[in-house]
Design a protein that fits this description.
Layout (H helix, E strand, L loop, with lengths): L1 H5 L5 H14 L6 H7 L5 H4 L5 H14 L8 H15 L4 H17 L1 H10 L2 H9 L5 H14 L6 H4 L2 H12 L5 H15 L5 H8 L2 H13 L5 H21 L2 E2 L2 E2 L1
């Protein structure tokens, strides 16, 4: 509690040292529940807008650590983390953006409440910018792709992701799979997750796969997915969806199938 109080101080040096101490303490799994309970006491809006790399990175890292996988992720964490992560994803510091994307990926991975909170907070567009930034390092782009893969599993906000801009952003690293395989595999997983609900498949594929996109996706799957274990399942899922849509679009015609 004392460290949380000090993190609210006016002195940036005190804020920084308190947040770093909290970040180090948060690495111990058994302390996690106490940290989540106290998170609302942190002035994230102020801390995430300091433009000081150490303070912003400590905030992002703290959220990443308390968002560990587990059934005990609380509603408090989801409610508190969304807006700060959106701000941190827009940071001018690359290391902050990378860690914020990784934290968003953790929150989105296991719980629908986390996905809804993140999407409602507006993290989608900063994640897409990071994913589309060819100048960003692989860790940053992979963090964004993994977060998109988690968000793609949302049932309540699925329609916000089945849109041309997110789909184009996910398709690009898949087509360039050999260049950054980890990014491409995560993006492929996001596309597969988006394609799973049957009622959106045709709309998704018509937006995602104009002739060039379809050819590029199929070529990437054919040439590169077999050598990447992480690409096997999402590639198979997308191929099954393509086959399903193609078959259902066929109509009986005189003398056979059109």
């Amino acid at each position: 509690q004392g460290l949380f109080n000090l993190a609210c101080a006016d002195d940036p040096d005190v804020q920084r040292d308190s947040l770093i101490a909290l970040m180090l303490l948060a690495t111990v799994t058994s302390h996690r529940a106490a940290f989540v309970q106290l998170l609302p006491a942190l002035p994230f809006a102020q801390l995430c807008g300091t433009c000081l790399v150490e303070i912003e990175h400590a905030c992002a890292r703290l959220l990443f650590l308390v968002a560990r996988a587990g059934a005990d992720v609380s509603t408090t964490l989801h409610e508190v983390a969304g807006q700060p992560l959106r701000e941190l994803l827009c940071s001018e510091h690359a290391v902050v953006r990378t860690t914020a994307a990784q934290a968003a990926g953790r929150l989105a991975r296991h719980h629908e409440a986390g996905r809804v909170a993140l999407l409602d907070a507006g993290v989608l567009h900063p994640l897409l910018r990071l994913l589309e930034d060819d100048a960003a390092d692989e860790a940053a782009r992979r963090g964004a792709a993994v977060a998109m893969r988690g968000l793609a599993a949302s049932s309540a906000r699925h329609e916000s992701l089945v849109q041309p801009k997110p789909l184009r952003a996910l398709l690009a690293p898949v087509v360039a799979l050999p260049r950054q395989p980890a990014v491409g595999c995560a993006a492929l997983g996001a596309l597969a997750a988006l394609a799973e609900p049957g009622d959106v498949r045709e709309a998704l594929l018509s937006s995602l796969l104009p002739a060039v996109g379809r050819a590029g996706l199929l070529e990437a799957i054919e040439k590169h997915a077999p050598a990447l274990a992480d690409a096997h399942l999402p590639a198979a899922t997308l191929l099954a969806v393509l086959a399903s849509v193609c078959l259902t679009s066929l109509a009986p015609a005189a003398g056979g199938v059109r």
